[in-house]
Amino acid sequence: MKKKLLKYNFKEQTNAAPLAVFRLFFGLMMFASIIRFWANGWIEKLYLAPEFHFSYYGFEWIKPLGNYTYLLFLICGLAAIFVAIGFKYRIAIITFFLSFTYIELMDKTTYLNHYYFISILSFLMIFLPANATFSVDNFINKKQYKNVPKWTIDSIKLLLAIVYFYAGLAKLNSDWLLRAQPLKIWLPSKYDLPFIGENLLQQNWFHFAMSWSGMLYDLAIPFLLLYKRTRFLAFLVVIFFHVFTRVLFPIGMFPYIMIVSALIFFDAKLHLKIIHFIKKYILKGNLKTTIFSNRIAANTNIKSVENYNFSRNKRKIFVPIFTLFFAIQLLLPWRYLLYPGELFWTEEGYRFSWRVMLMEKAGSTNFKIKNLETGNYFMVNNSDFLTSFQEKQMSFQPDFILEYAHFLGDHFTKQGHKNVAVFAESYVALNGRLSTRFVNNTVDLYKIKRTFKHKEWIVPFQSEIKIKGI
To answer: Minimal CA–CA distance to 17: which of 256, 306, 272?
Structure first.
């Protein structure tokens, strides 16, 4: 493996079809995600209805845009369609990356691993010639490329491999492997599922089987997809795994995104067949009436160029960008080692690290507003400021608790309260353990600044997670 990496030929060319198919399916999946989000009323519920929005440290300036938030989603959806068909691709993918990432950063409450995955994947795609073939840009420019540099396709494979492998490493902890947590909590609650709900999902052995198989799947699947002899079987496993998890858990479009993304591991023959099928049965069959679409389908009047090559100036720019990009992806999940305490408890270094569905955390956090001179105080009704979803997320995440405490301090100071201090009464249960005190209730959180430093006001974890992955 090391020898192959050292001998990797960055000048090697390969058929452009896999990159084109990936672009098409990625754009369509993103468009479907935007439509789904809009149709379910989540724009109003998550971004417009709340009075207060939790922000990422350093990105406090990114907020919902009122009713213009709908316009932001519209732009993002249109950009996704343009990416899919390869129309003004470079502008479209940059627009999609910026608009989607802005949406992701508007409220930390909505954080999901696959939102982060889409952001970094779309950033990566800015630098890839995904419109080299089978795109509207080919028709406009009257030029298409048969081959692209092999590394442009391999970079997507590498990113997918990192996501899977790091998700597997994260499952190497005693809660997941030796206690089958949190699956032991989640699976029995699905008793209403036909056939398996009242029997299989209630069995202790099945909880452990799911935990161990999930870990082994994540660790092995990128290698099985890379190896030609096991690729087809591995893809069937990908389909089964993600469809089954979608049946069990409400995780949105993520399973379908990962299934479609796995196609990039297949040779160009499959992707050429997909392109041929689309041309023959979709473009020609349904869009005959427009000369524009018919020409795209037939690739008429388009000059075919053998290889797509990056200019020397582009290579000078792209090499450091790609090096930094993948260095961040490889190192960022390990930043938790810089913090003391139990990761699942403090969550310092938890996000952006492919720790998928590893915790069942429930909390109850209430705030006391106190006048430090008189000693008078009153308790805050969280529902006056937060939606139920926001309050649930805030109740067990330290950075949420601190940010909300500052919001409350500022709010009541503006209302005329003097010498304001903010204290939290917080209790949290992690992965089936008893609820214990989470925040030191003698610490004035209003005086604590938001930083990346360790939060010393978190009460130390009273249990122990013996085995640890990333």
So the answer is: 272
- For residue 306, which phi and psi values (nearest 5 degrees)? -65, -55
Query: Where are the chain's structural domains?
Result: 9-270+296-334, 354-447
Tell me: cis bond preceding 50? Omega within 30 of 0 counts: no
Q: Which H or E element spans position 148?
A: strand 143-149
- Cα-to-chain-centroid distance, residue 77: 18
State the pTM of this model.
0.93
d(CA 183, CA 189): 10
Q: How far out from the chain centre does Cα 220 lie?
A: 21
- DSSP letters of 168-234? HHHT-SHHHHHS-TTHHHHGGGGTTSTTTTTTGGG-HHHHHHHHHHHHHHHHHHHHHHHSHHHHHHH
d(CA 225, CA 212): 20
Please write the tens of the pLDDT for every residue from 271-314.
999 999 998 888 875 554 444 455 444 545 788 899 999 988 88
Please report which helix (H) or strand (E) contains residue 330, including its range.
helix 312-331
